[in-house]
UniProtKB/TrEMBL annotation:
Keyword terms of this UniProt record: Oxidoreductase
Tagged with keyword Oxidoreductase: yes
Organism ancestry: Bacteria, Bacillati, Actinomycetota, Actinomycetes, Kitasatosporales
Name assigned to this protein: SDR family oxidoreductase
Matches recorded under PANTHER family: 5-KETO-D-GLUCONATE 5-REDUCTASE, BLR5618 PROTEIN
PROSITE patterns: ADH_SHORT (PS00061)
UniProt-listed InterPro entries: NAD(P)-bd_dom_sf (IPR036291), Sc_DH/Rdtase_CS (IPR020904), SDR_fam (IPR002347)
Gene3D superfamilies listed in its UniProt record: NAD(P)-binding Rossmann-like Domain
Family classification: Belongs to the short-chain dehydrogenases/reductases (SDR) family.
Length: 255
C-alpha cells in the first residue's frame, strides 16, 4: 500500500472551470503537464479555458451540470475513457445568493445554492472516490474549494455560509474514509480572489457593523499556485486545510 500512495496519475477534473478560480487552476495544472477535464454548465467558457491552455497538455471540455447525478457520472466516465486513471478532482463549482436575511431568502434560492455548493460537491466527490478506489493502482487526491465562509460568515450570507461549513465536513469525512485506498483529501479556503464572483468586494461590501467598505482582492493565479502545490505532493503527504487570502482583507477580526 505504501507504494500505491506515492504517485497519483497526472489527470485532473476541475469543476467550475469556465471562469475565475476554476479557470486559473485548470491553466496552472495544464501548464504543469496535467491532462485536464474542464467541467461546467456552459460550453463556450470551457472552450475559452481550453484555448487559453494552448498545447501545454491535453485539455478536454466536458459541459456538465454538477447537480445532475447522470451528467456527473458521464463526466468521470469520459475522463477515464480519454485520459485513463484519475489523479485529482478540484471540487470547485459554486454559487451564491444575493445578500439577504434568512426570512427574506426564498426556498428556491436556498435550494439553488445548496444544490450546486453541497449536492454538486458530493456528487463529484462520490464519482472521483469511486474511480480512485477502483483503478489500478488505487489512489488519488480530492481538493475541495471551501471558503473563508467555511470559518466565519459575512452578513446576510446564510445559504453560502451553511454550504461552505458543510464542505469542511465533507473534506474531513473523505480524508478519513479515503485512508485505506490511498485517497487524500484537502481543502483550500479562499479569501477575496479577484473573479467575477467577487467584483462587488472591490466596489464595496457590507461589514458586520453595517458599513459598506471596499475590500482588497488578490490574483486568482496565487490561488492556482497553491492548488498546484497541493496537487503535486506525493499521496503519502497531504495539505489538509490551507487558507489563501488577500493579506489585508478583514478576515482576522471579522465580526
Amino acid at each position: 500500500m505504501s507504494e500505491i500512495r506515492k504517485i497519483a496519475a497526472k489527470t485532473a477534473v476541475v469543476t467550475g472551470a469556465g471562469s475565475g478560480v476554476g479557470r486559473a487552476v485548470a491553466l496552472a495544472l495544464a501548464g504543469a503537464g496535467w491532462s485536464v477535464a474542464l467541467a461546467g454548465r456552459r460550453d463556450e467558457p470551457l472552450r475559452e479555458t481550453a484555448r487559453l491552455a494552448g498545447e501545454a497538455a491535453p485539455v478536454l471540455a466536458v459541459p456538465t451540470d454538477v447537480t445532475d447525478p447522470g451528467q456527473v457520472d458521464a463526466l468521470f466516465a469520459t475522463v477515464e475513457e480519454r485520459f485513463g486513471p484519475l489523479g485529482l478532482l478540484f471540487n470547485n463549482a459554486g454559487t451564491g445568493a444575493p445578500p439577504s436575511l434568512i426570512d427574506e431568502l426564498s426556498y428556491e434560492r436556498w435550494r439553488a445554492v445548496v444544490d450546486v455548493n453541497l449536492h454538486g460537491a458530493f456528487l463529484c466527490a462520490r464519482a472521483a472516490f469511486r474511480a480512485m478506489r477502483a483503478q489500478d493502482p488505487m489512489g488519488g487526491r480530492i481538493i475541495n474549494n471551501g471558503s473563508i465562509s467555511a470559518h466565519v460568515p459575512r452578513p446576510k450570507s446564510v445559504a453560502y455560509t451553511t454550504t461552505k461549513h458543510a464542505i469542511t465536513g465533507l473534506t474531513r469525512s473523505l480524508s478519513l474514509d479515503g485512508r485505506p485506498y490511498g485517497i487524500a483529501c484537502g481543502q483550500i479556503d479562499i479569501g477575496n480572489a479577484a473573479t467575477e464572483m467577487t467584483r462587488r468586494m472591490a466596489e464595496g461590501i457590507e461589514q458586520p457593523d453595517g458599513r459598506v467598505v471596499p475590500e482588497p482582492v488578490m490574483d486568482a493565479a496565487d490561488v492556482a499556485g497553491t492548488v498546484l502545490h497541493m496537487a503535486s505532493l506525493p499521496l503519502e503527504a497531504n495539505v489538509q486545510f490551507v487558507t489563501v487570502m488577500a493579506t489585508t482583507m478583514p478576515y482576522v477580526g471579522r465580526g
